[in-house]
């Protein structure tokens, strides 16, 4: 009896120590995200069924190099090195609306513009500006519609991207959109339309070859590929969640008339 108890104590004391530890391997295996298959389908297919390609102009050599550095820094979740990307000295508070009850940013901290020298601020501002033009005005730059994007880093594909969310605050409507989204929705001039809402997510990516692309996602499509389909759907909001595509690194905010600013997580 006494010796059995002793054996039990010894086993219990030893059990927490793994018999064959594998911590070294864990470091080399990239973390997987539900959206890995979705990103592979985007970057490997010329015309994926669930996305429409928005043509991007060829960037200048210097801009391409900065984007490549930016991809690496984002993948290492490190946006301030090896080049400094952001200009801390010019941080500013994002505007609030409806007697300060509507705060569009993720927190009350200052948002930080990019350093003018790396031209990334201009690059992302241009993306924001080309989206409404490309969709023939179905989306506009405004605090009710397109004003932000989420920067993510996907380690298994070494892809970095931004999920732009448009149609953020459609007006409440008892028939078509009976949802109260809080103070930021008040006075919204965005009329809910399911055929626009389902295409409200725009995804920019820079892949492992530093190739950039921009896509308008149709969330209402079913592809038959489970890895892709689990990212789609979600009516009537049709939100493509950046956290399903990778580590969420920062938010980008852009309202016409203001410089684009970054809010790090
Ligand atoms: C980004 O990282 C990869 C892999 O570590 C490296 O080969 C490449 O040179 C880096 N690119 C830049 C622009 O630093
Ligand atoms: C960011 O990169 C710099 C330079 O490579 C390094 O010194 C620093 O430790 C890195 N920070 C993080 C959080 O990885
Ligand atoms: C909708 O509201 C935004 C923000 O107040 C404004 O900038 C925009 O001009 C309005 N759009 C229309 C079509 O009235």
Give the helices and strands, then pairings.
Elements: H1 2-14, H2 23-28, H3 36-44, E1 51-54, H4 61-75, E2 96-97, E3 102-103, H5 120-134, E4 148-154, E5 159-165, H6 194-197, E6 201-206, E7 212-217, H7 226-229, E8 247-253, E9 261-264
Bound molecules: 2-acetamido-2-deoxy-beta-D-glucopyranose (3 copies).
Residues 142-144, 189 line the site of one 2-acetamido-2-deoxy-beta-D-glucopyranose.
Question: Can you tag this structure with a few keywords?
Answer:
265 residues, alpha+beta, 7-stranded antiparallel beta sheet, two-stranded antiparallel ribbon, 9 strands, 25% helix, 17% strand, globular, disordered N terminus, binds 2-acetamido-2-deoxy-beta-D-glucopyranose, signal
Question: In words, what does this structure look like?
Answer:
The chain contains seven helices and nine strands; from the N terminus they run αααβαββαββαββαββ. It is of the alpha+beta class. It has one domain (2-14, 30-264). The protein has a seven-stranded antiparallel beta sheet, sandwiched between helices. It is globular, with a radius of gyration of 22 Å. It binds 2-acetamido-2-deoxy-beta-D-glucopyranose (3 copies). One 2-acetamido-2-deoxy-beta-D-glucopyranose is lined by residues 68-69, 72. Keywords: Signal. Residues 1-16 form the signal peptide.
């Amino acid at each position: 009896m006494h010796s059995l108890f002793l054996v039990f104590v010894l086993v219990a004391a030893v059990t927490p120590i793994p018999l064959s530890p594998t911590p070294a391997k864990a470091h080399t295996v990239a973390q997987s995200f539900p959206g890995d298959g979705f990103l592979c389908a985007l970057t490997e297919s010329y015309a994926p069924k669930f996305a429409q390609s928005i043509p991007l102009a060829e960037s200048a050599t210097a801009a391409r190099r900065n984007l490549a550095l930016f991809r690496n820094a984002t993948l290492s979740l490190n946006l301030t090195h090896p080049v400094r990307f952001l200009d801390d000295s010019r941080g500013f508070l994002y505007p609030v609306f409806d007697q300060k009850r509507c705060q569009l940013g993720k927190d009350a901290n200052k948002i930080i513009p990019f350093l003018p020298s790396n031209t990334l601020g201009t690059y992302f501002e241009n993306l924001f500006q080309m989206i409404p033009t490309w969709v023939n005005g179905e989306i506009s730059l405004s605090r009710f519609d397109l004003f932000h994007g989420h920067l993510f880093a996907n380690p298994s594909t070494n892809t970095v991207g931004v999920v732009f969310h448009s149609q953020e605050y459609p007006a409440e409507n008892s028939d078509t959109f009976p949802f109260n989204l809080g103070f930021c929705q008040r006075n919204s001039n965005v009329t809910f339309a399911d055929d626009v809402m389902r295409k409200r997510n725009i995804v920019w990516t820079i892949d492992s070859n530093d190739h950039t692309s921009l896509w308008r996602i149709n969330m209402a499509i079913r592809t038959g590929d489970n890895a892709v389909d689990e990212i789609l759907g979600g009516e009537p909001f049709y939100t493509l969640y950046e956290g399903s595509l990778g580590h969420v690194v920062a938010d980008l905010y852009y309202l016409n008339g203001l410089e684009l600013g970054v809010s790090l997580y």
